[in-house]
Write a structure and sequence with these properties.
One of its GO terms (biological process) is SRP-dependent cotranslational protein targeting to membrane. Residues 90-248 form the AAA+ ATPase domain. The chain is α/β, with parallel strands linked by helices and 292 residues long. The protein has helices at residues 2-16, 23-35, 40-55, 62-78, 104-117, 134-145, 158-171, 188-205, 223-235, 254-262, 283-291; strands at residues 92-97, 122-125, 149-150, 176-180, 212-218, 240-244, 266-270, 278-280. Helix 2 (23-35) packs antiparallel against helix 3, helix 3 (40-55) crosses helix 4 (62-78) and helix 4 packs antiparallel against helix 11. The longest helix is centred in the C-terminal third of the chain and has 18 residues, at 188-205. Bound molecules: guanosine-5'-diphosphate.
């Protein structure tokens, strides 16, 4: 709603004013897209798409731009999205990465609830052993959602937590193991080393683990989220993004930027602080809601 009310309304206002497409319209469009947190690169890409629509005469006036743009946005968001890996008899290990404050712990709680509701067994691993309250907060979510948690003392080796958690999940035939990780991007090389070690240890107990590494990003930070994503992308191979706090922002355009500049699919969106406020991301539904 918020993104629609600003970004899309502004785009509509711009294009509706043009009976004929000219350079001025592109300039105006560029300005509203940039203020809508679509980012420079993705804005250029979308403007190029519109230019080809004009060339092929699919777009003949300003009104034609909106449905055309919706199609481009759906195509961009759906491009190269592998389906979410499903449980195949072994435990799916999902690493959750991201800087502190973006909503990592909350997202783990929401995912635990989601998968439990799907009839899957879930376990949590408190892999952020660095932040004092991290394991405590995660324990609250474990209790709230009724799932077991593996945790060690503060300051313990995160890889040891992962080793114990993967061993336990395997022994219990748990479907999904959600692993919290530390969000210290300041010490990039340490973080990289730690995450690599966690992955190595996980794969020792469960072949192919981690099957997913989800990066959690805070939508309210707009283009900063994209910079963060690039930094994390350099540190670990990401399989998907969770964009949180979409309820509180008009900066939803950042979804396009994240997808285009990272090439990683947006898997989930957070739309509130409650345990049920997580939605699997559906590109067509998202675009539909923006443009309806
Ligand atoms: P972490 O430091 O990354 O683990 O972040 P937390 O999970 O502790 O979340 C930080 C704050 O963001 C908390 O106040 C959460 O309630 C809030 N939060 C997380 N996800 C969402 C969301 O989707 N929408 C809103 N409005 N708030 C959220």
């Amino acid at each position: 709603e918020k993104t629609k009310g600003s970004l899309i309304k502004n785009i509509e206002t711009v294009v509706r004013g043009y009976a004929k497409i000219d350079d001025e319209m592109y300039d105006d469009l560029e300005a509203v897209m940039l203020t809508g947190d679509i980012g420079v690169e993705t804005t250029e890409y979308l403007l190029d798409q519109i230019r080809s629509g004009v060339k092929s005469r699919e777009i003949q006036n300003g009104d034609d731009v909106i449905p055309y743009l919706e199609k481009c946005i759906v195509a961009l968001l759906e491009e190269n999205n592998d389906p979410v890996p499903d449980c195949t008899g072994t435990t799916d290990v999902i690493f959750i990465v991201g800087v502190n404050g973006v909503g990592k712990t909350t997202t783990i709680g929401k995912l635990a609830k989601y998968y439990t509701q799907q009839g899957k067994s879930v376990m949590l691993a408190a892999g952020d052993t660095f932040r004092a309250a991290a394991a405590e907060q995660l324990t609250i979510w474990a209790d709230r959602t009724g799932v077991p948690i593996v945790k060690h003392q503060e300051g313990a080796d995160a890889a040891a937590v992962v080793f114990d958690a993967t061993a336990s999940a395997k022994a219990h035939h748990t479907d999904i193991l959600l692993v919290d990780t530390a969000g210290r991007l300041q010490t990039k090389s340490n973080l990289m080393e730690e995450l690599r070690k966690m992955a190595r240890v996980a794969s020792r107990n469960i072949e192919g683990a981690p099957q997913e590494t989800l990066l959690v990003l805070d939508a309210t930070t707009g283009q900063n989220a994209v910079s963060q994503a690039k930094l994390f992308g350099d540190v670990v191979p990401l399989t998907g993004v969770v964009l949180t706090k979409l309820d509180g922002t008009a900066k939803g355009g950042v979804i396009l930027s994240v997808k285009r500049e990272l090439g990683v699919p947006v898997r989930w969106v957070g739309v509130g602080e409650g345990v049920d406020d997580l939605r699997p991301f559906d590109a067509a539904q998202f675009a539909d809601a923006l443009f309806d």
